[in-house]
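I had to read the description of the data format several times before I understood it. In essence, backbone conformation is discretised, so a fold becomes a row of integers matching the chain in length. I therefore recommend that a typical entry be quoted early in the introduction. For illustration, here is how one protein appears when written out as sequence plus structure tokens.

***
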Amino acid sequence: MAAGRAGGGARAKAGAKAKSRANKPARQSGAKPKPARSNGRQAAPGAAKAALKLKGDAYSAKDIEVLEGLEPVRRRPGMYIGGTDEPAMHHLAAEVLDNAMDEAVAGHASRIDVHLAADDTVTVTDNGRGIPVDPHPKFKKKPALEVILTTLHSGGKFSDKVYETAGGLHGVGLSVVNALSDRLTVEVAREKTLWRQAYARGEPKAPLKNMGAVNNRRGTTVAFHPDPKVFGTEARFRPATLYRMARSKAYLFKGVEIRWSCDPKLLKAKDDTPAKATLHFPGGLEDFLASTLEGRKTLTAEPFSGRADLNGGGGKLEWAIAWPLDEEGFFSSYCNTIPTPQGGTHELGLRSAVSKGLRSHGELVGAKGAAKITPEDVIGDASVMLSLFINNPQFQGQTKERLSNPEAQKLVETSLRDHFEHWLSAAPETAKTVLEYAIERAEIRLKRRQDKDLKRQSATRKLRLPGKLADCTRGRADGTELFLVEGDSAGGSAKQGRNRETQAVLPLRGKILNVASATADKLNANQELKDLIEALGCGTGDAFMEDDLRYEKVIIMTDADVDGAHIASLLMTFFFKEMRQLIETKHLYLAMPPLYRLSQGARTTYARDDAH
């Protein structure tokens, strides 16, 4: 749920008085417990205590589990790869490929082979240095290869001595793949000797074996088959997904050649995924963007692209931006070749760089309206590719979908802005075209906002707003909040404590309809939901229009008890089913009203629960 907490001011005013329940005194240690009941009859004296005692006696040291080795991964795979579905299964392949790419980025490998077999076995081979096979200093009876494959948080990427800009920094990649595969074989060609070891569900089937001398081979080969006990028997690797994954790695690092292959039987008749392909992009992101936009009209003849060393950051940056005219673009960002589909601080840095750079250029040439330009005006519909290489990247979550390094934003902004301003000054006609494009988009955006404010004012006059709605007086949606509360009593106290200019209150009667299983007729006939839909004014389903939303924030504020939690879950279900865009655009919030009021003399404070 994209529901966040409502602002503190709103909660303090409207939330603190929501119900008399919030005003009950804190529990006292001497309070008498209510007698336990069974089938409506009072239990025998001491029954409740006896039950508690038995439950307590059943809990001892033997109930404490200690999960060792890779057992935590098999017990809770979602903690490491985000689930047990097909996307999670593809994450295993990404982890193995990331390790091979780290060798390439570090300058030790130039070629990677990726093969998908008919039985869903994925094989990744690189011509890098090969995983070390000598005994590990800490585990003298185990080769380093076995330690890496059977121990979480092991690898050569925690120190800058081996890899300066590694992707698999969590140190769980190969070990997690090993734990979640019913079979895995690894071969290492190192110092003219070939070594091999096989595993099953994280356990070595035999010791590391010396396979003899090899003269013209070096690197690591990992072949694995996902465990159907973890992912189910229906999950399959998709050739198109793996091919796109391999292709993206090739254009993210121009120094590597990736050879893709898969069993032809896996390809469907209309599948445009090749059975074999050699992927190499000497021009990096610019080459890939050009091939993606081939045949399409763009705002400028050439994209804004380039590479740069980070200013004092010890990393590298590559980017490519084009403005297609026929349809919306896209924003693809990466850090150390890891895709970051949820964005992050490096994306914020790029957005800030282009908007500030274009505003600065506009002021320099005296363009009216340049000061109004925002990042969305410049690259809202652009096709953007951004690749960042830094030391010690920090990702949110094990699936690494968002970069969170705070310093990355400033590093990207300062490095890229200099190049963008130079690009604009070196090509005045191109700069004029981009500037006029952004100013026009800014004017359209401001006009829409003005129309939206006028529409809201007229809608307030024309709509038959619900009678119980205590609306706010502000004529525009910016800064306004709608509180959804339980019943008239909560609504009354919330209305007394609200800011009338910006805060509206809509009391709801009882528990609303559960729309998860309700028919459309029942939904349309439900008065509480009809009132809510009318109050918001933005429509539902395919008719939803964010611009028509009458409030910036919709805040669910129910009691801090079981019934309140149930009502909140019903409301969130309604919004998820009927107004999902409200959640995706971050307009839905969940208030956290206090459970207790604590008073001492003239001082009063509120506590959310027993612990806070």
